[in-house]
Design goal:
This protein is α+β, with helices and mostly antiparallel strands. The protein is 18% helix and 30% strand. The strands form 7 sheets. It has a 6-stranded mixed sheet, with no helix packed on it. The structure holds adenosine monophosphate and magnesium ion. Adenosine monophosphate binds next to loops. It catalyses: adenylyl-molybdopterin + molybdate = Mo-molybdopterin + AMP + H(+).
């Protein structure tokens, strides 16, 4: 690739894809399991396949309120005499003979002798005699036994993050507890002499530490155990002590700040001394300085200090990495292509993750627009955005109306 004034190509940077690959290769899933009640399992990663021990539904039942009949009786217009009622939870115990029917309600057991349900709106009733018109089919409105899940079927696979539907499904199988992977332990801290902790008085030259709050939020949503180690000063010995403390008993360490090549940027050097640096530069914006490595048994992510960069690199690299470590399979993010109604500034040579607002235009079409200023310190852009606009390395400025790739936050955060 040629270098020009509009090009940010840096041969020492990895591409986003290469960085993701390196991270994936540098990880190990934790594997330790625990047994919890299905409510506590919400949002956690299933550690063992779940097989159904019953059929769901366990019996043939009615999908409608109406009348249970024998399909063979339905020749032209017919009249049938009602011999009983099957309620949900209170089946009709008798047998329905030819020329007969039973009143039935949704979810009730299909009585012996019957195989078809006629909706109550489609019959005329006179006392215990009902008249049925033509056009009905044998078997209609009957939910077969095992229609949802069958005995012996694998209904949930290990590695799935359990959703509300999943824990409901486990309940429908009568399963009170499941095995899940234990929570990851993640230690994190901010670095920077300029940082003031929220709650303290801001001194001249200081800014409030916001990264520990965005990190707290993102990590909490992931369901990990958090160890917040506060703010660490830009002193090599402080950074070193914090690293050693963080590595004890934790699965991952996340820091922000101090990963550039400034005089006060000690994170990457410290990691080199105490552990291993796998890479420290990625061809992306925001987030170019990003350090990945290992210290003792903990994986290490040194995020850039700029608040937007820290969030973007977390979502693109750290989150999928932690998900894999937790044992989650199929970590795939939804991405869609939509027209962009704003023009976008972009240099070639790096991948951009610009902040966008995905919305419907007047014709109801899904379109995206820019949140405006894209500086990596502008945290309000992340707050306003509901998606990333992902622009590939080779892409330059984008004219309004062009199609762009968008990653919605819904589901991402
Ligand atoms: P650094 O990566 O340490 O060079 O920091 C880059 C920019 O991000 C600087 O303007 C820092 O002041 C700012 N910054 C670093 N850490 C934080 C933080 N925890 N919260 C808010 N801003 C930060
Ligand atoms: Mg700094």
């Amino acid at each position: 690739m040629k270098n020009s004034c509009c090009d940010d190509y840096d041969p020492s940077s990895l591409s986003v894809e290469q960085a993701l690959e390196r991270i994936e290769q540098g990880l190990q899933a934790i594997g330790a399991k625990e047994q919890v009640t299905i409510r506590s399992a919400l949002g956690r990663i299933l550690a063992e396949d779940v097989l159904s021990k019953i059929n769901v539904p366990p019996y043939e039942n009615s999908a409608m309120d109406g009348y249970a009949v024998r399909g063979a009786d339905l020749e032209g217009k017919v009249q049938l005499s009602m011999v009983g009622t099957s309620f949900a939870g209170q089946p009709y115990m008798g047998t329905v003979e030819a020329g007969q029917c039973a009143r039935i309600f949704t979810g009730a057991v299909i009585p012996n002798g019957t195989d078809t349900v006629i909706m109550q709106e489609h019959v005329e009733r006179d006392g215990d005699v009902i008249s049925i018109g033509t056009g009905h089919k044998t078997g209609q409105n009957v939910r077969p036994l095992g229609e949802d899940m069958r005995i012996g079927e694998t209904v949930l696979k290990a590695g799935k993050r359990l959703s509300p539907a999943d824990i409901g499904l486990l309940a429908s199988l009568g399963i009170p507890e499941v095995k899940i992977f234990r929570r990851l332990r993640v230690a994190f801290f901010s670095t920077g002499d300029e940082l003031c902790a929220v709650g303290e008085v801001l001194q001249p030259g200081q800014i409030f530490d916001s990264n520990r709050y965005t990190l707290y939020g993102m990590l909490t949503r992931l369901g990990v155990e958090l160890i917040d180690m506060g703010v660490v000063h830009d002193k090599p010995e402080d950074v070193e002590n914090a690293f050693l403390l963080a590595a004890k008993g934790n699965d991952a360490i996340i820091t922000s700040g101090g990963v550039s090549v400034g005089d006060a940027d000690y994170v990457t050097d410290t990691l080199r001394r105490l552990g291993e640096v796998n890479f420290w530069k990625v061809a992306m914006k925001p987030g170019k300085p990003l350090t990945f490595g290992k210290i003792q048994d903990a994986v290490f992510f040194g995020l850039p200090g700029n608040p937007v960069s820290a969030m973007v690199t977390f979502y693109q690299f750290v989150q999928p990495a932690l998900q894999r470590m937790m044992g989650q399979k199929h970590v795939v993010q939804t991405r869609v292509t939509v027209p962009c109604v704003s023009s976008l500034k972009k240099r070639t040579g790096r991948m951009d993750f610009q902040r966008g607002i995905l919305e419907r235009d007047e014709q109801g079409r899904l379109v995206v627009r820019s949140t405006g200023q894209q500086g990596s310190g502008i945290l309000s852009s992340m707050s306003q955005a509901n998606c990333f606009i992902i622009l590939p390395v080779e892409c330059g400025n984008v004219a309004a109306g062009s199609e762009v790739l968008v990653e919605p936050f819904e589901g991402l955060i």
